Amino acid sequence: MDITVNILLTIATAATPLLIAAIGELVVERSGVLNLGVEGMMIMGAVGGFGASYLTGSPWIGLLAAIAMGAVFSLLFAVMTLSLATNQVATGLSLTLLGLGLSGMMGTSFVGQPGERLPNIDIPGLTSIPVIGRLLFGQDPIFYISIALTAAVMWFLFKTRTGLTLRSIGDSHTSAHALGIKVIRYRYLAVIFGGACAGLAGGHLSLVYTPQWVENMSAGRGWIALALVVFASWRPWRVLAGAYIFGAVWIGQLHAQAFGIPVPSQFLSSLPYLATVVVLVLISRNKRLTMMNTPASLGQPFVPDR
Amino acid sequence: MSANQDGTNLLEVRGLTKIFGTLTACDHIDLDIARGEIQALLGENGAGKSTLVKMLFGSLEPNAGEIFWNGQAVRISSPGVAKKLGIGMVFQHFSLFEALTAAENIALSLDDGSPISSIAAKARALSFSYGLPLDPESLVGDLSVGERQRIEIIRCLLQTPQLIILDEPTSVLTPQEADKLFETLERLRSEGKSILYISHRLEEVKRICDRATVLRHGKVVGHCNPREETASSLARMMVGNEVQAVVRAPVEGIATAQPLLEIRNLSRKPATPFSIPLKGINLNVRAGEVIGIAGVAGNGQGEFFECVSGEVLQQDAASVRIRGKDAGGLTITGRRLLGAAFVPEERLGHGAAPRMKLSENLLLSRHATDGKAFVGTGGMVKSAAIYAAAQRIIEAMDVRKSAPDPEAAALSGGNLQKFIVGRELDRRPSVLVVNQPTWGVDAGAAAHIRQALIELSRSGSAVLVISQDLDELFEISDAIAVMHNGVLSKPMPIAEATFEKVGLLMGGAEPGHAEHTLETA
């Protein structure tokens, strides 16, 4: 029984950073901006979070620093693509490259230093319930944030006027501009929110997942988060499902490799990607829903003609 | 507003100027709009009407000039400012969001913070009270042009503006829908609201407008009372010279001519929950004739066009035959290679790729049929050849533009339409299918396009025109069929057709379709 619970716990831990980064990117893309710099913002969050935690001794300050780092780094992207109308794909890619290099440089003195893990939050009474107690009520704080964030983004996008406005900008920025909606301002806020989320996801890596600093420790998770958003056809609950499927198959194949199942390890390592793609493609079969949810102006620079 | 009822005009414009590159779109324009009047803004395509109203609505910033609102100088720096002042606008190129529902589209332009859940009910109530029925839950992407326009109008009315700017509002409405709109406008006028009305339909301008300002080449060339003018005198003011009346020579021996386009028992299931199924459509279009299809927006005309053009393939290859060959299973290119040409309803994004040059747009629809002329060895595009062909079309159709080979999106709606129709006419196709050939096109250009369609048919081609403009269909068609709820009536020879008969069929009053199916089968 304990083994099962432990496996389930590691699944949640593996899925949480993907979920947070993907939810942030989902909001960005819903506003019509394609930020390919998730990986870069994530690793900046990781190094910022670890550094602040290491220097102050408080992982909580580290958590805030990770969020701030991601947000500030995304601001660079926002200024370039929104105010200067540069190509979003190229700018996003260079943001990732910059983030990977910059974080490596900033983190040289942290390599090999022991870090402090964010403590789990136990809720007296609930945590001691067998099996589900530890799963639902004895996790790290970022796990709770990730679930609350998903619910909040769902509510924001589909139940609030501001969310509707954001979606409309993603559908047609020219129409939105014609209605007097401040397209650029909304997109700035969306990009910064996405950056803060990516930073938080990075903070999860260096403060919870493996509380230490290793260069390149995001290991492609930012790219997986980006892919999740597309395969989930820009729907928050599908991002949640995708992140957990990925996490589950990822952990599952690690255990399978450990047991020595006679299947090539390369195949097992590719399983999480395959499984996630297959499941998300299957649930996105409804073309009409996909058409409704795809931001039509995604990736197009917006320059209001005056 | 009562504090301001001191004789000043609601809106005064002095010396408003807008320059794009080398083109002066608006050149020192003066305009006064009084309270409670419907003023018409007339002018050809490219005369500067759209530019002027965009400046009034804050979408464009003038280079020079002043705007006074209730006697106060104002700077309308954004559409938000215009809305706060009390200026509402119904756009010609719709500013709707296709992936959102009608209710959500309406909600977006209301800033009063009312909950989204209540807007659907509000929109439904308002749409019925103004006689513009609307399903708030439907997705805009699934709606016809006419239905989309209803959303635009309702969206504008819900904001209770003082000045309403309507850019070509009736171009996609049926006579009955237009009548309803005029009632609405008259009601708004009696409530003391002012309306700036842009239209190419001079008859309706005469009918509802109190005053008219005429623009030509970016300048105000005159004011008049449209009620005291005739349609042709108004047209003369706009164009600067006489508009040629469309001439349709009667044709002999059509009954024995070869049918070039045959539709046989064409049916189609609805593609989306909101679209119309087509039910057993039969139609022959013979060499030398123009057949018009009338109908209220959203009765299956769009679905029918998609089937005929090959955007949607048919199960039964014989249900669409072009020049005697089964074409139901062929793609658009396959059907073009048989000698057919198609002009869809939507100009931007369907008829033309907005961010591509005109010459490149020319290649898009003609790379297969004119491959030898436009594409060289190894698939290299012959830029000089497509440029020359584009210039030939631009000249033949009198397309007004600001650059030698501009992007499609840079043209005004009417000018782009002239180019798209000209692109297909230039091929001399033996079958031409056109959906809404002159929507939003001014009188002079519309006459030009209509005459070109008639001439194409008289040179031995079959021409099928789908239109919501009954005047147009009566002007150019040799026979008119009516589409209602996915069923096509038997074509009525023009000599027998009257507005009343066609109007009844458009409303679905005459259930005589079954008889027709038997006859042609």
Automatic annotation (TrEMBL), chain A:
The chain crosses the membrane at residues 6-28, 33-54, 60-82, 89-111, 141-158, 188-210, 216-234, 241-261, 267-283. Keywords: Cell membrane, Membrane, Transmembrane, Transmembrane helix. InterPro entries: ABC_transp_permease (IPR001851). GO terms for cellular component: plasma membrane. Its main location: membrane. It is found in: Cell membrane. GO terms for molecular function: transmembrane transporter activity. It is a multi-pass membrane protein. CDD domains: TM_PBP1_transp_TpRbsC_like. This is Nucleoside ABC transporter membrane protein. The lineage of its organism: Bacteria, Pseudomonadati, Pseudomonadota, Alphaproteobacteria, Hyphomicrobiales.
From TrEMBL, chain B:
It is a peripheral membrane protein. Residues 11-242, 261-510 form the ABC transporter domain. It holds the Pfam family ABC_tran. Its main location: membrane. Keywords: ATP-binding, Cell membrane, Membrane, Nucleotide-binding, Repeat, Sugar transport, Translocase, Transport. The keyword Repeat applies. It is found in: Cell membrane. GO terms for molecular function: ATP binding; ATP hydrolysis activity. GO terms for cellular component: plasma membrane. InterPro entries: AAA+_ATPase (IPR003593), ABC_carbohydrate_import_ATPase (IPR050107), ABC_transporter-like_ATP-bd (IPR003439), ABC_transporter-like_CS (IPR017871), P-loop_NTPase (IPR027417). Belongs to the ABC transporter superfamily. This is Nucleoside ABC transporter ATP-binding protein. The lineage of its organism: Bacteria, Pseudomonadati, Pseudomonadota, Alphaproteobacteria, Hyphomicrobiales.
